[in-house]
């Protein structure tokens, strides 16, 4: 695989790059967030490994900018910031996995391989539910022609819901598929994002699209 490593600590970067190359991967290294953003948006990569504490542009801001640019390369944060809130913040920024320092190189390599094995999402370039439309290439959302501005994680949540239109999706499904949590973080992250998303796509329209199914989950569907 072709991997982008964004890490400002020279010893850590050399250690990780060497270990990944020994496992047959090609590794490009950027020392700053700005360089990482430039690499990520101009070259195709299979996986990105990004430190959170970077000079010029921090890791969170870098990943948000990458996602806003429409780049969906699977991304792993590698950082000393290991609190639950830190992991939530990282995943909300658009990362797919999170590994704290100190770490075992074997685990890092296994996680990178797992991210690289994820099947690509269907090559659909547009999704539609009733009058709600999502353009996956331009990363835009409109309802009845009205532009709706979404944050990166809101876009990801809506995309998942629209890909499963008319199906009830559970909180656990959203935690796993949208935030890549395989445990309950014991936060209201799903409820908060659903509320924000509902206010953006339904407010000002007569018929709601996003529904809460009490005791089951959520569903997005066109008005009957």
Largest sheet: 5 strands, parallel
Which strand order spans the largest sheet, edge to edge or round the barrel?
2-1-3-4-5
Tertiary shape: elongated
Q: Any idea what the radius of gyration is? A: 18 Å
Low-confidence stretches: none
Portion in strands: 15-25%
Q: How helix-rich are the residues, as a percent range?
A: 25-40%
Give me the strand/helix succession: EHEHEHEHEHEEEEHHHEE
Query: How many DSSP helices?
Result: 8
Mean pLDDT: 89
Tally of DSSP β-strands: 11
Q: Classify the secondary structure makeup into a structural class.
A: alpha/beta
Question: What is the rounded distance between the termini?
Answer: 46 Å
Descriptive overview:
With 224 residues, the chain is α/β, with parallel strands linked by helices. Helix content is 39%, strand content 21%. The protein has eight helices and eleven strands. The chain has helices at 10-22, 33-42, 59-68, 84-92, 105-117, 152-163, 171-177, 189-201, and strands spanning 2-6, 26-30, 47-51, 75-79, 97-100, 126-129, 132-135, 140-143, 146-148, 210-213, 217-220. Strands 2-1-3-4-5 form a five-stranded parallel β-sheet, sandwiched between helices. A four-stranded antiparallel β-sheet has the order 6-7-8-9, covered by helices on one side. A two-stranded antiparallel sheet has the order 10-11. Strand 7 (132-135) and strand 8 form a beta hairpin. Helix 2 (33-42) runs parallel beside helix 3 and helix 6 (152-163) crosses helix 8. It is elongated, with a radius of gyration of 18 Å. The model has no long low-confidence stretch (mean pLDDT 89).
